[in-house]
Amino acid sequence: MTNVKITRALLSVSDKAGLADLGQALGRHGVDLVSTGGTAKALRGTGLSVRDISDLTGFPEMMDGRVKTLHPKVHGGLLAVRDNPEHAASMTEHAIAPIDLVVVNLYPFAQTVAKRADRDEIIENIDIGGPSMVRSAAKNHDHVVILTDPADYAELLAELDANDGATTLPFRRRMAAKAYAATAAYDAMIAAWFAHSDQGEAFPASLSVPLKKAAELRYGENPHQSAALYLPIGPSARGIAQAEQVQGKELSYNNYNDADAALELVSEFRDGPPTVVIVKHANPCGVASADTLIEAYEAALACDSVSAFGGIIAVNRPLDGPTAEAISGIFTEVVAAPAADEAARAVFARKKNLRLLITGDLPDPTRPGLMLKSIAGGMLVQSRDNGAIAEADLKVVTKRAPTPQELTDALFAWTVAKHVKSNAIVYAKDGSTAGVGAGQMNRLESARIAAWKAKDAAEKAGWAQPRTIGSAVASDAFFPFADGLLAAVEAGATAVIQPGGSIRDAEVIAAADDAGLAMIFTGMRHFRH
Question: Active-site residue 281, yes or no?
């Protein structure tokens, strides 16, 4: 079976976009139109002659429209193998007419959930007849063409025009594949709603994640790897994947990954003062808050200007011209901001390769959600690290309590450390990172590397001393030995914030007391691997 002449079409759509033009074009090709309820009404409104589905089945639509297409004269017309003598005999015996084209898009389940409808309305927006017709038509794609997306109407009409009212087998195969993907995603959304929202299951027995491809990327982490960007189908939080790219080259896999890390961190400060985050290879190399965005950028850059070269920048305020000018002083891959004024856009327009992303509202760092990680032979799934602490959660464990400034710096460092690869050590002073140690195999080395970077930054800037002097230091997990703490003391830190919970906590606390440090336990760990 190759080309199939379209003589009868069944149309039943929730999304009426493009329906009138499609109906008119099918009418010009002499196609017999059969339709349901609101779709039939919309087609008749354009002057077309349309048969009701009840004329085909001999049964009225009933039960508030729940039962209208679930009938042998519908599914027999879709599933019959036209060149099978037994099927043909059954069609003749039971007066079943063939249906060559099905145009269906499904009840708006995702939109109903997104508008926070009550349970009864959500249940009523679970489509039954639609997916059944889609699957029947797609299975029999040798003889039937199925359309589930208004974006494909134009290609169908081009097929009909080019093939004397017929469709080709390659087209029908592609539409069948797309149709099964559509019903799979639809069922996955319904299953997710039942599991998470209706039944309150964090990890259901079967987990489906409906995604739609947004773009194929040039390559993955390395040129020999392929990659693509997929977006959630159905209700979801906005993030870097939904940002508007104003200018610049196509985003790469690594650009997306780094920009996501930057946006997630800057979102921790979405209700705070102007804040700038600079990320390199998914780790922050400079973070600062200040009275103005440009001051925050300058302070963040000063933390590690070497690593910032070719980095990713995210800000928590609309980007202005002066800040854009400052950012343009070094090579930057991507800048993400909630908005950008005309002056900022004009500055970046001179940097044609720089990608400017407008994110709109920043994501809520406390939002729930699942994180998936592929491993050999399986998938690890966990809830997002949306844990947060308040001052009331803190426990001072040393003889000396932190000063108000030390406490402010400690909480700032703690917020940044949450987004640094483990083992993470972050020094902070006056609302700015002083040194960041990331991804080392032991905490002592992270403390030493962060201090070394701070010393190097001071020498480059001509400062009298590194900013670790008088800083607060955060550790994403407990200090298993006192050596990491003592490295922070040697770097000049005067306050420490860490989860606590080590069998050697008493030893670490004693070392802090001997050094005159103030130390706070959070009771919460933030590993990031």
Answer: yes
